[in-house]
Structure formats: C-alpha cells, structure tokens
Amino acid sequence: MNEIKDKNKSISYENATGPIEFPLTSDIVFHYIMQNSEKALTGLICALKGINPADVKKVLVKNPISLNNLTKETVLDLLLTLNNNETMNIEVQVYEDKYWIPRSILYLCRAYDNLKGGDNYSLLKPTTHYCITDQNLLPNNTEFYSHYLLLNTKNHVPYTDKFGINVLQLNHLDKATDEDICNNLVYWAKLFKANTWEQFKVLAKDNPVIEEVGNMILELNTDDVTREMLEGQRRYREMFDTQYVAGYTDAEEKLNPIIADREATIAEQSAALADKDVTIANKDATIADKDATIAGKDATIADKDATIADIESQLQKYKQKYGDLS
Q1: How many secondary structure helices (H) and strands (E) does the chain include?
Q2: How many domains does the chain have?
Q3: Is 187 part of a structural domain of the chain?
Q4: Which of 15, 118, 214, 236 is deepest in the core (most CB within 10 A)?
Q5: Does 208 map to a domain?
Q6: Nearest to 3, CA basis, from 267, 288, 311, 219
Q7: Do the domain assignments include residue 13?
Q8: Burial of residue 86 (number of CB atoms within 10 Å: 0-12, 13-18, 19+)
Q9: DSSP-assigned beta bridge partners for residue 147
Q10: Distance CA 133, CA 91 (A)
Q11: Sign, CA torsion 221/224/225/227
Q12: C-alpha distance from residue 223 to each of 4, 6, 102, 236 (Å)
C-alpha cells in the first residue's frame, strides 16, 4: 500500500456511505487489491477452484502493477502461478466486447505458452482463464459458473483437463448451485456486485480479510492521484465504446442504401423470375390441354378403328356362311 498517500491509511470503510464509484469490478482496483492482499487473493482462488485454503501453498503474481506507471490503455488481467505448478489468468470484464470469446482464447493460449526457446514441453503448466463478468458474453448460456474444456465432439471425453476457460456470470447469480454457495463463490460474486458501501459493509462484517479489502477500496477511491487515473481509464473505455458504436452506426448508414438497392434489384429479379415461371406454367398448361385434345382424338380414332374392325369381322363371318354375293 505504499503507493497510496499516507493520509489515506487512517480512513476506514466503516465510515463511508453511498455509492462506491470504483468498486471491485474496476479492473485496476481488483488487480491492485489482489496483489496486495494475499489472504483475499487466496480466498478468491479457493472460491474459483473449489479448494480449501490449506491447498494454497504459494501464489505468485506474475504481472504486478504499479499505480505510478499505469496508462489508460493498460490490460489488467491478473496472471498467477499457483503452488509453482499451475497457471491462472483472472480477468474482470464489465464492458461489452463483441470479440470476447476469441480474445479469451487468445489470452488462455498466451498464458499457457510459458516456455522459452529450448525448454522441455514437460514444463508446460495446467492453465485456466477465469472471467468474472456482468455482461452477456455467453448469450446462449445463463449459468452462474461455467467450465469449458477441449472435448471430443462425439463422446464428450476431454482432450485434456489442463487447458480451459471458466466464466463467472455475476448477472446470473440466481442460477448458483449449492456447490457454488459452499465454495463461497456466491459470497465473492456479491462482493463484486456491491456498488454501495452499505451493501459492502453487510458482506464484510466480522470478516477481517474483507474488511481489509474494504479499506483498500476506499483508499483507492479517495486518493486524488489514483482517482484521476481511474477516471481517465473509465473515460477512455467509454470513449472507445462510443467510437466503436459510432463507427458501427456510420457503417450501417453507408451500407444501408447499398443493401437496400441490392435488395430491390434482387426483388425485381425475383419478380421477373416469378413472371417467367407463370408464363412457363401457362405454356405447360396449354401443352397439356393440347396433349389432352390429341389424346381424345386418338381415343376417338381408336374407337372408330375398333368399330370398323368389328364390322369387317362380322362381314367376314357373313361371307363364310352365305358366300360372296358379288
């Protein structure tokens, strides 16, 4: 905490009221607190992995941040090594991202690839990318906590259990299971969702670790330099999102007339084809009528031929009986 001004170290979250402007879902706040509170980080790791604190022997933050060197463009996923034999990459995603799924795969692959030139493949560590989000990044999945692995598409047998993505959807807290509750994952989700000090105090009561987290959040929210940096990052994100939407809208405005013209052309061509189909159908009907007429005439001729044949047969019998009268 030596990066926050000394004057803030005496403040307590217990005296704070109202909205938390930069809560735990702020990636800078999240990253800074987790790298400075080993107990809080251990608690979150245990909740995400469903393990006991005793199973956490050592946690190394591989990408610690310094508030003095942050820029508004800084990517703030938390990259960890757990017990020297497992890699965890934790991100907080509270902005819409059309390309989050391919981006999350890229981050997972980068975290997994920890080898240097000439290293043995046995040095690769099991790696999981954890996403904590309040956005609908998975529109077809409303689970509270999802686990994804590479699987055989026929029998669903995992290709490996050492490479996966877990997604904690804060906006689907109502879908939490008993296991999620037992692992304290619901408790942590509520901490992330707490956006007022009143909500946070209820969760932090009689929990020294979270009380420490509350004081750190308050310090980050009240330090002038840190607030300026947090506000700058937020405005940058909002501006980026606005520019993205504006660019999408401009593209729509430019493409819509072209699309409309093409659709009109297609409609005209479809109408012309429909007319041709009608003409062909009419001709087919005319041909069918003619064929029916010809068939009728053929039937009449056949009847006449049958009548003539019958008369000739009777005449032949008469000649045989009475002789040729000519």
Answers
A1: 8, 6
A2: 1
A3: yes
A4: 214
A5: no
A6: 219
A7: no
A8: middle
A9: 166
A10: 8
A11: positive
A12: 7, 10, 36, 20
Spatial CA neighbour of 49 closest among 101, 88, 5, 99: 88
Asked, for residue 226, whether it belongs to a domain, the answer is: no
CB 127 within 8 A of CB 165: no
Extract the tokens encoding 53.
């604190």
Sheet holding 163-169, edge to edge: 59-61, 78-82, 86-93, 127-133, 163-169, 145-149
The distance from CA 116 to its chain's CA centroid, rounded to whole angstroms, is 32
Range of the domain at 155: 24-193
The structure tokens 């840190």 sit at 226
Token readout for 209 is 């670790």
Q: Which amino acid is at 267?
A: A
Tracing tokens 């308050």 back to the chain, one arrives at 218
152: tokens are: 């055989």
Q: Which two tokens stand for residue 118?
A: 């000439």
Q: What's the whole-model pTM score?
A: 0.71
